[in-house]
Every structure is written in structure tokens, then in C-alpha cells.
Task: structure prediction
Amino acid sequence: MVAPKGACGLPVVATVAGLTRHLADARAQGASVGLVPTMGALHAGHLSLIARAVAECDVVAVSIFVNPLQFGDADDLAHYPRALDTDLDLAATAGATVAFVPAVEEMYPDGPGDMTTTVSVRDLGDRWEGASRPGHFDGVATVVAKLFAMAGPCRAYFGEKDFQQLAVVSRLARDLSFPVEVVGCPTVREPDGLARSSRNARLSPEERAAAAVLPRALRAGFDAMVEGEYRPAMVESRMVQVVEREPLARLDYAALVRAVDLSPAASLLDGGPFRLLVAARVGPVRLIDNLDPGEDLPAELAAGVPAQERGA
Result:
């Protein structure tokens, strides 16, 4: 059943059967379908995904579901920001045509703790975030597989800010033959370069200022590559030094990887494409970011970093 909710009047579907029927009816009338999976707390990054979907598809479904399977930390799940009415208004303003807002019981009828069937993307899901957050990508892959099965043939939009997630989802769709085209969209950043994230709302003003160390670290790694450094360990060292100078940040990893499979890069002389990755905890919040060194540097990062952070 589809019902409007909130001042925006955006149609809301709460059941799996309702979403499947709604999108199947749209396709039967010749409409193309776009899917934007989210966990709510929508920000400019999410809105850019919706806008891209609206530009390319006739019907755009935005899912809003805080997926318990991808949280290894119960405190992180409990404190994840939730603002459904605001999310619906923002999604409607961005051009979404329907919202899928299921309860946990609808997505996991026997409870998330009793799932006997899950999806795992080996290797891609085991490194970096997968190593730091065991089980995280199994939770992501499982809920995305369910959403793809519910939505049917469509284009699905994911942000490059979560680059490893994008890689996992793309491989999932290919390996399991879902009739879904996964579309990666550029990271949306704050004026100081910090990647937009729902978790940013949990930062104090001091922590928010400190969080900008992540894009500065990426810039330092980029600068090292531009200067001719071909040894990944030295590029990573530049990034590490930047983060370690920020007292409110605790580095998890800073890495230069092969973009195709996220394996550690052996040498820049081997050819690319490559990706710079960084993850750190700032206050109570764990943040991630990444940069494609083969593309033009985002405007927010182009101003560079202080000389001491470049290793100069």
C-alpha cells in the first residue's frame, strides 16, 4: 500500500510487496526506475544522488532504512541520526517520486540476529573497512541484495565517498546477475573539503574542525604523487604524518590501493588506476574519505595543505 506522509506529500511505501508492485507497475507503463538506497539523515551528498537519478530515470525510489546488520557497534547504531519527516521533505524537494521506509521487522521478519542467509563479497569486503569493522560489508551486501531483488530492473545510485562500499555493491550486482546498473556519483564536500556524511552531525565544533584533517591527508598523498614519489609506502607516510599532527584524530589507516580490487599498490610504476584511502576516528565518530589521484583535484582540496603537512 502506498500512502502520503509528511507535509511534502511524497508517497511512502512501508512493505516489500508494496515497493515491488509500485515499481513493477511503473515499468509496465514504460517508465525507467532509479533506486537510491540510504539510511536516512539525508544531506547534500544524498541529494546529489537523487538529483542524478531524477535526471536519468522516470521514477526514483529512495529507501530510508537504518540497517542493523551493518553495525558492529551497538552504540553507533543507537546514535545514528534519524529524522524521517525532514528526510521525506528533502527527498521530495530533490525530485524523488516514492520513498521506501520499512520497519526492521519488514526487512528481517525473523529478526536481524536470526538471519541464516547472508551475502559476502570476499576479498573486496575483507580489507580496510572490512578489517576494521568485521561483518560490516556482509550487512551491507545482504541489505543491498534484498533491495535489488525488491526493486527489480533499475539503475542504483551510490556515492564514491564510500568507495569500498561502491566496489562491493558493483561486484555483488555483477556476480549475482542482478538486472541493476550500479552508478557511482562524486563525493560532495564541505567548503573545507570534509566529505559530507550523516555522522558529521555528531561532531562537536572542535571535532568538526579537526575532521578536516582527512581531506588534508588525501591532499598530502596526492601532492607526493604529483612530486614524483612512486613508492606507495612513502605516499602513505605523508598521509599518516598529516593525521598524526591532529590531536583529536586517531588514525585507522591511510593507504594507496589499486582501484580495481582495493589491494595494496606495489608501485606506482605498475600503472593505475589507484585510489587514496583514509579512515580515522575524531571524537566519538569514525570517518572515512578517499580520492582518485587520476582525476582533477576537487575544488575544495585544490588550495593545498600547509607546507609542514606536505612533508616539505
Remarks:
- The chain has eleven helices and ten strands.
- The radius of gyration is 20 Å.
